[in-house]
Amino acid sequence: MMTAGHASMHRAISERRPFRSHPPFDIVAFAASAGGVFALTEILGKLPAQFPAIVVVVQHLDPRHRSLMPEIFGRRSQLPVDQALDGMNVEPGHVYLAPPDRHLLINGDGTVSLTQTELVNFVRPSADLLFESVAAAYGERAIAVVLTGAGKDGSMGVTAIKARGGTVIVQDEATSEFFSMPSAAIRTGVVDFVLSLNEIPSALVTLVAGKVRD
After folding, report:
1. What is the pLDDT of residues 80-114, one digit of tens each?
2. Which of 20, 51, 112, 147: CA 20 to 30 A from 29?
3. Is residue 63 situated within a structural domain?
4. Catalytic annotation on 33?
């Protein structure tokens, strides 16, 4: 697990991951809860328009209200931002948001499944279910990112990501409004990088660019 700044992180991963000429990561899956709208807005606003990976997001929301996240994130993001629809195909360079009160799953054929099955860790949508589906569909070509939030959603899912050879990034305590979700992920022992909110976008660009890989 790395806790250094991005420059140190880039040097560390460059030392242990030989050069590859093709992008090694196809998808980045985010999990966030309390404080997550701000954190996601900051990250999505700093990803370049040519970001070549699929981006999927679980943000815990009050299911009684229509989500305004597509509009909120869309104002800052250079990438198209859409609420995921059941059966749609996910595409690189796009951001897909889990609708309120629906679990978001990504299938092996690159399509979306939305379900209203039982709550997981008291929440729906569940980061654990998203991460587990992404791990099964993309294996080592997946990145999971756990951001600020209460509870422990995502901690089982990051284990699935790591078991399939993927990479796990967690927001650090200093920049997390609520550290419960990141802390629960860290306690699994599978986290690769603990980074500040400002360091996460550049780390994702470096990893997804395909210049470094195990």
Report:
1. 999 999 999 999 999 999 998 899 999 999 999 99
2. 20
3. yes
4. yes
Q: Which domain holds residue 61?
A: 6-13+23-208
DSSP secondary structure, 80-134, as one string: -EEE--TTPBP-TT-EEEPPTT-EEEE-TTSBEEEE----BTTBSS-HHHHHHHH
Query: Is 60 annotated as catalytic?
Result: yes
List the catalytic residue out of 6, 10, 26, 33: 33
We report the CATH number of the domain holding residue 112 as 3.40.50.180
Task: Choose, from 6, 10, 26, 60, the residue flagged as catalytic.
Answer: 60
Q: Where are the alpha helices (DSSP H) in the chain?
A: 6-16, 36-44, 69-76, 127-138, 155-163, 180-187, 200-208
2 confidence band (pLDDT: 50, 70, 90): low
